[in-house]
Design brief:
The protein is of the alpha+beta class. The protein has twelve helices and 15 strands. It has four domains: 3-153, PAS domain (Beta-Lactamase, 2-Layer Sandwich); 174-274, Beta-Lactamase (2-Layer Sandwich); 276-352, Helix Hairpins, CATH 1.10.287; 356-444, Histidine kinase-like ATPase, C-terminal domain (Heat Shock Protein 90), CATH 3.30.565. It has helices at residues 3-8, 29-49, 67-72, 95-106, 151-173, 192-198, 202-205, 220-231, 276-318, 326-355, 365-375, 400-416; strands at 53-58, 61-65, 111-119, 125-137, 140-149, 177-182, 187-190, 236-243, 249-261, 264-274, 360-362, 386-393, 397-399, 426-433, 437-443. The strands form four sheets. It has a five-stranded antiparallel sheet with strand order 2-1-5-4-3, with helices on both faces. Strand 4 and strand 5 form a beta hairpin. It starts with a helix and ends with a strand.
Length: 444
């Protein structure tokens, strides 16, 4: 039975509507009133226990409000609100809207649910959803209001929206490459960092597996195993190689995290950290460490040997009764000092080679060979080496200092490690310059 229809049951003229024919029923007026009172009590019980605020406005004041409505407005009991103007519970920002809706209901039109704000007795502002309907209360036009407290619901929605916004901003503005894979391991979304790092747009990747795009062919099995491992609800960290769209290889650290929903893995969250430059630095450090080890070895051997010789000559000259000519000792010491000087020059040249910028110019191989033998004349037996030089071909351009270093090292080794059993040692140079440079020499 509709609520406004129920209100009409209080009037005697409507009692015949219960049995308009009058046949088959001989109910006295007290019996009818008893039934009406019982139905009214049931309706009131229902209204009181609904988890909604239900109120009746008559002449702009609260004529009725259920227990839920009173609790919603922070009243101890409904009677604390009866007779008060409803507008004092409406937030000032919604006064105009509330008056317009109640006027509409008084004119016989329902006002559908709409969000508003109410002010409770304790001053707390709550969000509510309000519906208004025309109503008859004790024979007078009235308004029935149904109020639903949606404060927690709105706060929950706001919290979810904030979380989504934070995640969205983190996903899109992160400088790291991030990819979201669906439950099948295909690309669901990528961030701008991913597009920049690998050179693919989202449209090119959407719905595809990463093995088809960024995983090198030789690491396809690794890519499949990685997805399987993450899907089994394990968090993975892996240092590996991946491939850009242009074919360049990158060194990356991959962090793979499963995405859970109701105890099921519905996707994979992947983060890629580019460590290509870091790897280059590490390789450079390895090279430098190797060079440092070689330097330490050379110092311990090439530097200590002439120093030991000089120290031995000094001790020999100091021996009592030694009548040797000091000039001979000085000559030998001078030779050893020359060796030390050249050794230091070698070390400096090696360091210079790592730092000096490349300067391209025409190379005169004949002058270069002559200068090389002049620089190495201090080596034992260098003056006994014959040389035969043949230079053919087109002009050659390169960095003169570095080419000279190559010649110097090769000729130095040829002199030091020649066959001492041969009476006439010789170094033969055959240099042919075409589109590329070919060196050939022979030491006898």
């Amino acid at each position: 039975m509709a609520k406004k229809e129920f209100a009409r049951l209080h009037t005697p003229e409507n009692l015949t509507e219960l049995n308009p024919s009058g046949r088959g029923a001989h109910l006295s007026h007290p019996k009818i009133h008893e039934d009406i009172s019982e139905n009214e009590q049931r309706y009131r019980d229902l209204v009181e226990h609904l988890p909604l605020g239900i109120a009746v406005l008559s002449e702009g004041k609260l004529a009725f409000i259920n227990i839920s409505g009173a609790q919603m407005m922070a009243a101890e009991k409904p009677e604390d609100l009866i007779g008060r103007s409803f507008i004092e519970f409406v937030h000032p920002n919604f006064h105009g809207l509330a008056v317009a809706r109640t006027t509409k209901a008084l004119n016989g039109e329902s006002a559908p649910a709409m969000e508003q704000k109410y002010v409770r007795l304790d001053g707390k502002i709550i969000d509510v959803e309000v519906s208004s309907y025309p109503f008859t209360y004790h024979g007078k036009p009235a308004i029935q209001i149904i109020v639903k407290d949606i404060t927690e619901q709105k706060e929950s929605r706001l919290a979810v929206k904030k979380s989504e916004t934070l995640f969205s901003q983190l996903f899109h503005v992160s400088p790291m490459a991030i990819v979201m894979l669906d439950s099948e391991g295909n690309v669901a979304h990528v961030n701008p960092g991913f597009e920049k790092l690998f050179g693919y747009s989202f449209d090119e990747l959407k719905g595809k597996g990463l093995n088809q795009t960024i995983v090198p062919d030789v690491l396809e099995a690794e890519g499949n195993d990685l997805n399987t491992l993450i899907s089994s609800q394990q968090v993975v960290r892996l240092e590996t190689k991946r491939k850009r769209k242009d074919g360049a290889f990158l060194s990356v650290i991959i962090y793979g995290l499963p995405v859970h929903f109701e105890d099921k893995t519905i996707g994979i969250f992947g983060v890629y950290v580019d460590i290509t430059e870091q790897k280059k630095v590490e390789e450079e450090l390895k090279v430098r460490n190797t060079e440092l080890d070689n330097f330490v070895y050379k110092v311990s051997h090439d530097l200590r040997a002439p120093l030991s010789s000089i120290l031995g000559l000094v001790n020999l000259a100091r021996m009592p009764g030694n009548n040797d000519n000091p000039i001979e000792y000085l000559n030998v010491i001078g030779q050893k000092v020359d060796q030390l000087d050249h050794f230091i020059t070698d070390v400096l040249s090696h360091s210079k080679n790592l730092k000096l910028e490349i300067k391209i110019e025409a190379i005169n191989f004949k002058n270069l060979v002559e200068q090389t033998f002049t620089d190495l004349s201090y080596l034992k037996g260098a003056d006994q080496i014959k040389r035969h030089v043949v230079i053919e071909g087109v002009p050659f351009f390169s960095d003169r200092w570095r080419i000279a270093e190559i010649f110097r090292n090769l000729v130095s080794n040829a002199i030091k490690y020649r066959n001492f059993q041969r009476p006439d040692p010789e170094i033969q140079f055959s240099i042919n310059v075409f589109e590329y440079l070919v060196y050939f020499w022979q030491c006898e």
